Each structure stands twice: as C-alpha cells, then as structure tokens.
C-alpha cells in the first residue's frame, strides 16, 4: 500500500503594497537583485546571499508568486526562510563572506595608486562593519 506524500511548501509572508506602480518597481528590483545574485555565483568577488535576500524582500512586497517560488527554491529557499524567520545566516556563509571581503579589500590596497589609498581604507572599514554585523547574527542550522 502506497500513499502520496504531499510536498511541504512554505507560505510566504508578504506585505504587498496597494500601489501598482510600487509593486511593479519592487518586482523589477527583485529580478535585478536575483540576477545579480546569480552573477555572484559565477564571480568570486560578487556576493550572492545579499542579492537573493534583497530579491526576496522586494518580492514579498510585490509578488506572492515570485516570493513563494524563491522561498521554496531548491537552492536558495532555505537561506531565505532562515533569514525571514530568524535573521540567521549559516556559519560557513559568514566565513566565506568575510574571507571574500578581505581578499577584495587586499586587492584594492594592492591595485589602487597611492593617492587613492583612502578609498581602500574606506572599503576596509565598511567590510569590517559588515563582518562584525554578520557574526553577531544567529547561525542558521
């Protein structure tokens, strides 16, 4: 005797705007951020997670269909759900982000001319702040 198991889908938490113009703006921004996140998978100097989370936030305010699709996505869904439910980030993602920021900042110090070193220090300061913020968040399970 076999029985069908229904797939468990997470229901999106949405806060949709009533304005069609605002909804279309958020839908468009969601796709821009999602595409940037996909590019981040291919380019090591570009992050993926922040863009996917931004896409989820935009779609939560504009499109139940796209938000539902993303929170149940095979690869990105768990990360989006962890963020939406607990503001949690996996420990390996925190370390990966911090290492990538450190490498990118080091490359700035190496590549920028001496009179532009201030920009590298500014980036280093921002990246340090982001790393501190990341490690203060709970770890996703």
From TrEMBL:
Q: Where in the cell is it found?
A: Cell inner membrane
Query: What InterPro entries does the database record attribute to this sequence?
Result: DUF454 (IPR007401)
Keywords noted in UniProt: Cell inner membrane, Cell membrane, Membrane, Transmembrane, Transmembrane helix
**Could you tell me which Pfam families the record lists for this protein?**
DUF454
Domain of life of the organism in this record? Bacteria
- Where is it predominantly found? membrane
The membrane-topology field of this record reads: Multi-pass membrane protein
**Does Lyase show up as a keyword for this record?**
no
Which Gene Ontology cellular-component terms appear in the entry?
plasma membrane
The keyword Transmembrane belongs to this UniProt entry's keyword annotation:
yes
| Sequence intervals crossing the membrane | 21-43, 92-112, 118-135
Name this polypeptide is given:
Inner membrane protein
Organism ancestry: Bacteria, Pseudomonadati, Pseudomonadota, Gammaproteobacteria, Moraxellales
